[in-house]
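Just wondering, can you check both lines?
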Amino acid sequence: MTDQSDFDSRLGARIKAERKSRGWSLDILAERASVSRAMIHKVEKGDSSPTANLLGKLSGAFGLSISTLMARAEAAQGRLMRREDQPVWTDPASGYVRLHVSPCSEMPIDLVRITLPPGASVPMPASAYAFLRQLIWVLEGELLFVEGDTRHHLSTGDCLELGPPVDCDFRNEAARACEYGIIALRNT
């Protein structure tokens, strides 16, 4: 089993555990997340790798950040997260690579490094942001961040605080990869 398929299995099991812990059927989660029951079933079984957009919808339905949902599936608890232990996930739809940098602890903050390939676009539903505050910090390259009707053109070193939850889109319209950090503060 590859690292990606192993992670897909752990993530699917975590999604199923989150659903069952709330006493929800597949139908209830499908309705709350606006996702098909069949897709959730495939993800829970580890037969399909979820896209970032799908993870945003599922985590929003659970009232969790994507980082919290993924951390529950991927990382050990503790105060130190060594580079070799930082979980990596690749979005099958866009090819973006997500590196969970911060330790999985009781701190209400997550630090994630994203590499967005040239020409890639990753839409996220407002529900993924409903219960947290976020900063986007461009580490290298250019990022077009579409926040509702507002377009933010960000370059290396720029940092943007997200406003109230709206549907968003992370876009790399440049010819080279864009690397950016997401700093997410969970509402407690």
